[in-house]
């Protein structure tokens, strides 16, 4: 009598039970369900959870961050941080001059913020990333000092002040006007 052989050369009786049809008992499916979440939330529950997160507001600020000014007011500013869609309200540190913040807003410069105790942003400075076209200095007194020489130059005109007291004014046309007395004082005057 000949016995039927499988392609591997073994008789059907000698094949192990694992190579036969897979089991369909509930033991295997119970193990699989342990890896799956217990239940998925309904769309209404998901929407409610999203609304609750939105009401809480943005997460507290951690560490130093830079952002662009969206609005500047006397008591504070609104800053849009990188990666966020909505601007945040921020206070201005008392040491920071409000005019510096206003100038940063007008120039499109970024501001540097750090968190306060509650994680709210506080503007502590301005970050300049490019050379300005115009430098405007407003102060009660402006003092510029050079140890050896001070040179002011624009195009073909220049004013040079040296440490030895020599003053040189150079230009293609020099004008001087006075509404009152115009005095030239020196031990010697040379014209042409």
CATH topology of the domain at 65-127: OB fold (Dihydrolipoamide Acetyltransferase, E2P)
Count of helical regions: 3
* Number of beta strands: 8
How far is the N terminus from the C terminus? 138 Å
The proportion of strand residues reads 25-35%
* CATH homology superfamily of the domain at 65-127: Nucleic acid-binding proteins
> Which structural class should the secondary elements be placed in?
alpha+beta
Helix and strand element order? HHEEEHEEEEE
The description of the largest β-sheet is: 5 strands, mixed, barrel
What oligomeric state is this?
single chain
Strand arrangement, major sheet: 1-2-3-5-4
The helix content, as a percent range, equals 10-25%
Which segments are poorly predicted (pLDDT under 50) over 5 or more consecutive residues? none
Shape: rod-shaped
Name the average pLDDT. Answer: 80
Gyration radius from CA atoms, angstroms: 40 Å
Top CATH class of the domain at 65-127: Mainly Beta
CATH architecture of the domain at 65-127: Beta Barrel
């Amino acid at each position: 009598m000949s016995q039927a052989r499988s392609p591997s050369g073994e008789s059907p009786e000698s094949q192990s039970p694992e190579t036969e049809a897979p089991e369909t008992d509930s033991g295997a499916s119970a193990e699989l369900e342990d890896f799956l979440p217990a239940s998925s939330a309904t769309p209404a529950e998901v929407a409610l959870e999203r609304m609750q997160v939105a009401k809480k507001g943005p997460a507290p600020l951690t560490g130093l961050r830079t952002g662009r000014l969206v609005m500047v007011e006397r008591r504070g500013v609104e800053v849009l941080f990188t990666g966020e869609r909505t601007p945040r309200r921020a206070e201005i540190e008392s040491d920071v001059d409000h005019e510096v913040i206003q100038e940063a807003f007008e120039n499109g410069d970024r501001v540097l913020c750090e968190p306060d105790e509650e994680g709210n942003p506080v503007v502590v400075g301005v970050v300049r990333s490019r050379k300005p076209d115009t430098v405007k200095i407003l102060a009660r007194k402006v003092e510029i000092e050079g140890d050896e020489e001070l040179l002011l130059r624009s195009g073909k005109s220049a004013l040079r002040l040296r440490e030895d007291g020599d003053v040189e004014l150079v230009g293609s046309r020099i004008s001087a006007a006075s509404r009152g007395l115009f005095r030239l004082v020196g031990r010697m005057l040379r014209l042409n």
